[in-house]
Amino acid sequence: QVRLVESGGNLVRPGGSLTLSCAATGATFNLNPMAWYRRAPGKERELVASQTTLGSTTYADSVKGRFTVSRDKGRNTVYLQMDSLKPEDTAVYYCHGVGRGKYEYWGQGTQVTVSS
Known about the structure:
This protein has strands at 3-7, 11-12, 18-25, 34-39, 46-51, 57-59, 67-71, 77-82, 91-98, 104-106, 110-114.
């Protein structure tokens, strides 16, 4: 059974940085792409950033220039480096991966709170 496990969520001050990590266990195939989504209070879930196994990346406009998504080559791990954090980045962040037959896997979520 494939499981995505996130870590790294925390409380951080505006302007600060945080790195989220996600590792997939139980997968004998590549997850492609792997991505980070988030859901802020009262809002719908949105794509934050994604990366394919070939390194192609996609970012939400609201995080371009501040967040960086990366993967370990050949492994089902994905990271999200978040810099210049803003209060509006406060959300539960979810790891996501697409497997065989386009089956989607989700992590349990990790809370990021940006507040002074």
